[in-house]
């Protein structure tokens, strides 16, 4: 870590967080940033020190969901107990947030908060998928985060194959920055460094084995994140860390490493999907029916463009699938809230009846 980092602003703090700290009347406490999350505890950092911190029982009691707990990237109000321990009294409002749906569960997992750019990393071998890029872009844009692409392990393919993949990416995502890299030959690493600015926070997202941790180690200039030897079966390095953690680069940039994600489930990301597929959503406004599903309706402008060949078939298919996932999540969330409301009414009635019975 850069030994010259001494100001709270160097950790990403700005006027937005200071305004909200005062608004919530938390300005009587110190502030620190959550740089790692463990089971029941957090590592927080400010210019003074790093602390192992826990939230108060009051916060646990008042929390309604996982989103009410601190996450990596959050700014928190703390009281230092000693040189190594602290108590978290509150989480400052988040400027941006990346979250996803847990696999096979209707629950949300916060990946990271207060992110400026999400680097979505895919390797050029078996992991490569344009549809998977779109999934990550949807959850990033929904949380107000700018996405960018790192196409890693380019040493594994020829220049012709690389040019072909870059052309595919540019054709599908013409407004997204793309950085081809290799940690073996160091190609693209200088270009990647140019995309990282001081006091800005960058989240590295991707499947296990795409080289997220290796890239961060290269940016740090030392092997801080432990990587296991290359697997002979898969040809991939295995990341031994299972928790998210924040690192500080020499140029002042802030990066967050994440465990590999097998799936990227959609939460209530309709806004992110609409922003990502702006071409389709703009066209959808011209459809004959307001509630057009763009599947088989007569007078659908989206289907018309698809039939003409002007709309990429894979892009259309991925749009429909992501919208269905997001709608299903929203529907089940409403059902869950209705069950909670009904249960609350049941408890209230039961208490009233018990009171009457006692009298």
From TrEMBL:
**PROSITE patterns per the record?**
ENGC_GTPASE, G_CP
Q: Where is the EngC GTPase domain?
A: 113-262
What is its cofactor? Answer: Zn(2+)
Give the record's keywords alphabetically: Cytoplasm, GTP-binding, Hydrolase, Metal-binding, Nucleotide-binding, Ribosome biogenesis, RNA-binding, rRNA-binding, Zinc
Chain sites annotated for binding GTP: 152-155, 206-214
Q: Which SUPFAM superfamilies match?
A: P-loop containing nucleoside triphosphate hydrolases
GO cellular component annotations, sorted alphabetically? cytoplasm
What biological-process terms (Gene Ontology) are attached? ribosomal small subunit biogenesis
Q: Quote the EC number.
A: 3.6.1.-
GO molecular function annotations of the record: GTP binding; GTPase activity; metal ion binding; rRNA binding
Where does the record place the CP-type G domain? 105-264
- Going by the entry's taxonomy, the superkingdom of the source organism is recorded as Bacteria
Which enzyme class? Answer: hydrolase
What protein family does this chain belong to? Belongs to the TRAFAC class YlqF/YawG GTPase family. RsgA subfamily.
Q: What does this protein do?
A: One of several proteins that assist in the late maturation steps of the functional core of the 30S ribosomal subunit. Helps release RbfA from mature subunits. May play a role in the assembly of ribosomal proteins into the subunit. Circularly permuted GTPase that catalyzes slow GTP hydrolysis, GTPase activity is stimulated by the 30S ribosomal subunit.
This protein's assembly is summarised as: Monomer. Associates with 30S ribosomal subunit, binds 16S rRNA.
What is the recorded name of this protein?
Answer: Small ribosomal subunit biogenesis GTPase RsgA
**Species lineage:** Bacteria, Candidatus Liptoniibacteriota
Name the gene that codes for it: rsgA
